[in-house]
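Example 864.
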Amino acid sequence: MTETLHQCWTAIREEAKARRNAFKEAAVPKIHIGMATCGIASGAMETKKAFEDALAEQNIEARIHTVGCAGHCYAEPVVVIDHPASGFPPIFYHQVTAGKAKMLTNLFLKEGDPRFEHVYGATEINELIPSVMEFPRFNQEKRIIMEKCGRIDPEDIHEYIAEGGYETLVKVLELPPEQVIAEIEKSGLRGRGGAGFPTGRKWALARRAHGENKIVICNADEGDPGAYMDRTILESNPHQILEGLMICAYTVGARKALIYVRAEYPLAVKLVTKAIEQAKELKLAGGNILGTGFDLDISVFQGSGAFVCGEETALIQSIEGQRGMPLHRPPYPVEKGLGGEPTVINNVKTLASVPPILEHGADWYRSIGTENSPGTAIFSVVGDVLHAGLVEIPMGVSLRTLIFDICGGVPNKKKFKAVQIGGPSGGCLPEHFLDTPIDFDSLTAAGAMMGSGGMVVMNEDACVVNVSRFFLDFTQKESCGKCTFCRIGTCHLLGILDRLTKGEGREGDIESLESLSEDIKDGSLCGLGKTAPNPVLTSIRYFRDEYEAHIREKKCPGKMCRPLTAFYIDLDKCARGCDACVGCCPVDAVFTTRNRKKGIDQALCVKCGECMVACPPQYDAVRKVSPPELAPVIERPATKESHP
Amino acid sequence: MMLNILIDDKKIEAEEGKNLLQACLDNGIYIPNLCHVKDMAHPQASCRLCFVEIEGEKKPVPSCSVTVREGMRVKTDTPSVRRLQRSAFHLLLSRHFIECKVCPANRKCELQKIAKFLKVGLKSNYPLLLPKAVLETGKQETDESHPIFNYYPNRCVLCGLCIHVCRTTHGIALLTFAKRGIDTVISFYGEEDVSRLPGDKCLACVNICPVSAITLKSLS
Ligand SMILES: Cc1cc2nc3c(=O)[nH]c(=O)nc-3n(C[C@H](O)[C@H](O)[C@H](O)COP(=O)(O)O)c2cc1C
Ligand code: SF4
Ligand code: SF4
Ligand code: FES
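Predicted structure in complex with iron/sulfur cluster:
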């Protein structure tokens, strides 16, 4: 049996390596284009087309290699051009539009001029061009889960195999399952779906559970607004997830595996489905895997896209064709899950961590990250940061390092105000938490949560009350409606926050928010309700003065809540005769004063801020204030038009 | 096997495997509840009223989702239990249209019973979350789409008992939860299912509803 395994596997691996070498050694330039959803959204399709057309036009032979996403969202569309004949190392270009693609084909590919003004950096250290590896955004990351993302073509299983993929599965198929589980337990891997449950323990429970039809499920529901790392991994390297899922199935004794992907991720669904087919063709999945007698049926289930369906019991209900409503636990899915059978549910990132752990060993994994949170964390860092995108860092790195060093800090000379971690279940942390190490326990202690890994950085112009309102609006809409506290309680929280942002706050509102939040936390049935008040509780804890300002002074310190702000034009700065702001106002609120300067009719103004954008920087005459009474009153001169 | 448990100061016996809430109710110890019925395979645990404190556990737990254990010590009347119960109750009331005098549930309504037990009135501490039209006209909404039943969404406490009893009676539920969040309602399946309805021969859902949110059209 082992012999067939090795024969089969060697043939597959050699074939994959031969293909890769042929590609690498081909004496033509290679153009690697990031084509995950994020790249496509920034125009990668057009970029690809432009390269194709320009290559044909110039009669240049080159290979276009479509890859996934490496997480550099701020730089999309990303293209790496490897043009050995030019004498330059492979070069990373950012924001490669169709026009840039044409220009690079003509000048770099044809004439050998890499156009230094457009170069982001070389992908390797060399003597000609500074390398991206000298940038913190690249060298402070630690890639385990996303190691191959953005480097290989997700639609070609051979590329994954040539990079060492499926080697671990083959190794595992010859080991006793208990030994594999012991290694995962030893590694200290904790679930990346939010709660951080020890994965090895979950697998051990499932292995011990009785059931003829055990099932393993990869949870790729990812409904948190602003989090998209699971989608990116599915679109960039689906095979690493499949490999982890297969190892999980083998060790717990399951013969059926499901990948639960939300239907709103069409590209991810397509690529995972294709990955499964390719694995089956090579006999890496399906019946009698590599001749070992291990059968595993893997399929994709498309979820309907409700946030709550990511909760494991609701996810099971949804697969069973029921309304996605969480159930009381226990029993936990590992005892009694899909169809009453023991079911392991793991997050995408958890499963994708498994092959590297088993390849390099538990001790290696433990050497990365912290004692209680080994390994890496992936965050989607968005908001007021220079280099937004997906970042994979060792656990234990401080928030400061992540936000300021790796992601480049807050742009436009603005001050940092807060960071919201963990999406709607998470919390909002102020500046004095910047030295908090990022790991499961430290974040929870601070009142935030690892959650899904969404991270929103806010500058001084953000209003924490409004941000809480945004998240409560989300959770309130996504509540499944089953239990009293979450269904009705979150709606009352939202109602109070709504009033605060409109300047209708009252004494006692903060106390009501606090006490209702505590009740919802303690009283709700599932994690959605239990964590929904976190954004409110943390922002009150760390920014109470801002809540008070909204209530007592009708003032929004971030000047974000429209009813609490006003725009006015500083007459000392306004340039006589300048009309820049007049046309941009959608409601004709800008008028001309007697001495040919401008004023804003407060009764008409809708506070869109367009005039502030339109005012030429050398005048910079438009001011935004809160509370609105701070705006000086400037009378509109009576004219025939305005007073017919 | 019978297990001994202590509820407040009262010693009771309960059969192994039994649900704690049911054990209390069987022994004449009332704990507020709306979504529980005897012998439900998996408790819904959705109304969040049946909280108790169990020695050794940090926070109150819903008693309908706990299986009795030998020597268990339970408290039904602690400040944190009452706080959660009253809070849940007030939340339910903020979505409940009060019209006791003309309501068919008057005097047998579970909400009236719970209000009395918790020593609170029927006026919510929270602002009413009823649709604007209801607040303005003082008339509640009625879903009249079903040929035989009327459904009153502003009465319904979403205990789910109607769905449960329908499923256990007919093997398949002819009603379901619909919509999400605060808009969640009970809905009958569409036209094609009308033919399968047992008609006015089965009144299981009408009879089980604790607040008369489903009534027979012919009677209203
Ligand atoms: C409201 C809610 C939404 C959730 N959404 C997800 C999700 O999108 N993806 C995910 O992996 N886990 C999600 N979870 C956590 C799952 O219930 C479960 O704990 C997780 O999938 C287990 O995998 P892990 O052990 O690998 O973390 C969610 C939980 C709650 C309460
Ligand atoms: S906490 Fe919210 S999402 Fe969870 S069961 Fe209750 S109503 Fe549904
Ligand atoms: S209609 Fe009655 S039984 Fe059905 S969920 Fe509403 S309150 Fe409960
Ligand atoms: S009876 Fe226990 S939660 Fe409803």
